[in-house]
Amino acid sequence: xxxxxxxxxxxxxxxxxxxxxxxxxxxxxxxxxxxxxxxxxxxxxxxxxxxxxxxxxxxxxxxxxxxxxxxxxxxxxxxxxxxxxxxxxxxxxxxxxxxxxxxxxxxxxxxxxxxxxxxxxxxxxxxxxxxxxxxxxxxxxxxxxxxxxxxxxxxxxxxxxxxxxxxxxxxxxxxxxxxxxxxxxxxxxxxxxxxxxxxxxxxxxxxxxxxxxxxxxxxxxxxxxxxxxxxxxxxxxxxxxxxxxxxxxxxxxxxxxxxxxxxxxxxxxxxxxxxxxxxxxxxxxxxxxxxxxxxxxxxxxxxxxxxxxxxxxxxxxxxxxxxxxxxxxxxxxxxxxxxxxxxxxxxxxxxxxxxxxxxxxxxxxxxxxxxxxxxxxxxxxxxxxxxxxxxxxxxxxxxxxxxxxxxxxxxxxxxx
Length: 416
What we know:
The protein has 416 residues and is of the alpha/beta class. The chain contains 14 helices and 16 strands. The strands form 4 sheets. The chain has a 7-stranded parallel sheet, sandwiched between helices. A 4-stranded parallel sheet has the order 5-4-3-6, sandwiched between helices. Strands 1-2-16 form a 3-stranded antiparallel sheet, with no helix packed on it. Strand 1 (91-96) and strand 2 (102-109) form a beta hairpin. Helix 3 runs antiparallel to helix 7 and helix 5 runs parallel beside helix 6. It is globular, with a radius of gyration of 24 Å.
């Protein structure tokens, strides 16, 4: 079956979901989660094949890697999604017109959603669970780096769907070749929405070449601003967590902005980063403040390229600012509008930051690592939208629906 035919079959299969009861969806998701754990050896063996083709030093390696703990977390996320209220059939608004007809605005699925992603096999189960719960068929276009892992995961999904006598085409994995991406991007009238999840290179390619509507889940160039009224102990923990928890994810810290009056505290703020051997690209003032307290081999002078870079590695930049306005200007110039943070005990500064920063998620005294659908209580997420149309931030169940108007009457006609 060629790629276009696979897409058509997914579109046909999506109609089955329109009348599927939520309790059946819950059962499928629970069974799929349990089946994944039962077949963990098979999944980990497939994942090991993918890992063997990638150098461990590659920033994508950590994203690609599956472990028993990670599989358990994926299964728990799937069950969390199953337990959430259905986002479908919600009455958004209802009005009655003078002529007696009623107009209802009701939430409905998009239909067929295509996801293009890189070396992240966990996305396979996240997407399936969220799309099934929101009544959408999903088209999965994973990268060749994770092909063995994705095939193993989709095989388990298909086994469960077959058990429930559901067309397995509601979860379709496309071949890893680039030609499949081109066909997907141009599947107007078949695919309703495409969501790219990965590097800025991938996202830019999809945006520039897609004929199908796209929601961008943008790269995360994330900043933390340590204000003149920041708490040093809070700052030390937040900065370390934001940078080192998982460097390969989009909510990781890339640039620390520090008020010039707090440069003496910079060695303390960066002290934990040494344990993870984080390379720091520091401007001249920050470099002077860190010399003698931070390992010389990990300390490098910042260049223009040090700012506006999503490192996805044990690297970050530091820039000194004279005031909060300079910090806001820097973020406006370099942010990808993903997640930005201020560390301050000044309510005035916090409110100014929250009002002024244009990003999907704005934090005050909280690590940016919380930009995650599960952490927001959404069960899981299909990506973090950095655009403003339709949705912004973690894209979970509510964000995978649109709406339609239902108009009922008693024979009304329009005379003019």
